[in-house]
Amino acid sequence: MGVASLLPCLALSSLAPTGHAIAASDFLQARQAAPDATELAGRDVVDLPPVRLEVYPAPTCPNCRIMIQDGILPLIEAKLPSDRVHITVLPWASGDKGEDGVWRSTAQRSNAYDNLCAMQLCALREASTPHPVGAGSDAVRRGIEFMACHMREVQAEDGAELSTLMPAVESCAEQAGLRWSGSDGLSACVEDEGFHLQWGKDFADRINWVYQQPQWTNAPYIFLNGRPLNCPSPTYCTSVGTPHGDLALDEPGSPLQVACSLLGDPKPEACRSSQDGSTPTSKTSTATKFCEECWEAGAFQWRYSGRTGSSLSLIGVAAAVAAGIAGTLIIGAVVLGRASGVAAGGPVLLPAE
Question: What range does the domain containing 113 cover?
Fold first, then answer.
């Protein structure tokens, strides 16, 4: 697998669809799906819930923000039964695969991107992060609400000092019902637990699991019952990846509608309500084309700004998170530039072929 396919927020080549006799729902509910985060957490195979969703967004990736805001948050707000729907949401942190092929965190307290990841991990800590949690949990709802707000504010202030972002981050915590100040607040967690979570074995196990998968979706990386969930837009998912190609979903739709389609009858009230809404669309109302042009290799180049430490240009830094996969990519202050607009004074960072 080339480096281009391993960088967060770069588009991946889609698998060619092939004919399948088996229905997607049967495939996903059988043990043909790959072992996933729920099983990594020690759950018995026979005790697996019918829906297990994993999402790996990068704090500075616009498409990740759109998916969290328009795709994942509505699913969480629906409060589907926690014993039937599990979700794992982890920010894609800085790390490196060593010669042994094992991913290890390279997070540093002096690195701005790593601090952003720490903030999101701290917001999710009550939701047993990095372990799976029931989708109906109030703790995971508060964490995801913080993530959506946090990503919006961070990306709106491209290039800002971390200190400049803090008032907006505190406001995000308040809106999500999370304490910012105090010994048990997010601020204290960011300086300590937020980094220990990134350095911990449980977190590394989750990221290593992703690296072991032969197929990835576009960023944010999304897996349904251990298989890549392909979503052309944040409100429309169409297929899952299999060893034989993409398998069309029985009922394409938003992440919420896809989850509902696997729950069987009787369906939760939130599922019946979601079916009464407007028909899902593969188009997105956002200014960027979802998971295609804005992060596609060749459409943009990654440019090192020469700044490190507590300030960074936020849009684009996620593409350097997978440092060291094949050669060193610089993790620090990375800015996004058009292929024809490379600024003087910094090396162009492009994925290796």
Answer: 3-275
Token pair in block for residue 204: 């590394």
**Interstrand relation of 221-224 and 227-230 (parallel, antiparallel or unpaired):** antiparallel
Can you state the percent helix, strand and coil of the chain, rounding each to 5?
35, 15, 50
Tens digits of per-residue pLDDT, 300-347? 222 222 233 344 444 444 444 433 333 322 222 222 222 222 222 322
What b/e sequence results for 154-166 when a residue is b if at least 16 CB atoms lie within 10 Å of its CB, and e otherwise? bbeeeebebeebe
Structural domain count, the chain: 1
Q: Let me know if residue 105 belongs to a domain.
A: yes
Quick: pLDDT tens for 156-196. 988 788 899 999 999 999 999 999 999 889 999 999 999 99
Extended beta strands in the chain, E state: 51-56, 85-89, 95-97, 103-105, 133-134, 221-224, 227-230, 237-242, 245-253, 300-304, 334-338, 348-349
In a domain, 295, yes or no: no
Question: For position 80, what pLDDT does the model report?
Answer: 95
Provide the pairing of β-strand 95-97 with 103-105.
antiparallel
Collapsing DSSP to helix, strand or coil, 103 comes out as strand
**What is the 3 state secondary structure string of 48-87?**
CCCEEEEEECCCCCHHHHHHHHHHHHHHHHCCCCCCCEEE
